[in-house]
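Example 143, ligand copper (II) ion.
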Amino acid sequence: MKKLLLLMALFFPFSALAQTDNEVPASALYAFETATGMKVGAAFGTLHGGAEDDELLSVTSPVSPRVEIHEMKEVDGIMQMRRVESMPIVKNKDNLLAPNGYHLMFMNLAAPFQKGKDIPVTLVFKKAGAKTMTIPVMSRKVK
Ligand SMILES: [Cu+2]
């Protein structure tokens, strides 16, 4: 577990990015570049809820044999990451995926995430069904 937490610290150097008040795209996910040899990558951002409450059930992508839905949660005063079966999508709301909350975890990457190489994904929702989108990869450099 200690090793995992250390890995997460390396992985999520940024706190949640500032949110904008203006019109954001319905759903906007992003990922950061991963270091060479790093076998996992994560995606954050927002998923906009539709007219009724929904649930994100699963995610698939050609870049990873297994994409998991994870949640960072404080348990007994310690932030822990765990795999969850689904992520609740609240209607008419931008549901946040962030380093300190829900996020998508791409396991066993064949190649590192690189800027300019967008990640195609298919998100499966309980009610809305399958939605495909691409996740842009951002540089890790802080501007
Ligand atoms: Cu995770």
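Summary: Residues 13-25 have pLDDT under 50 and may be disordered.
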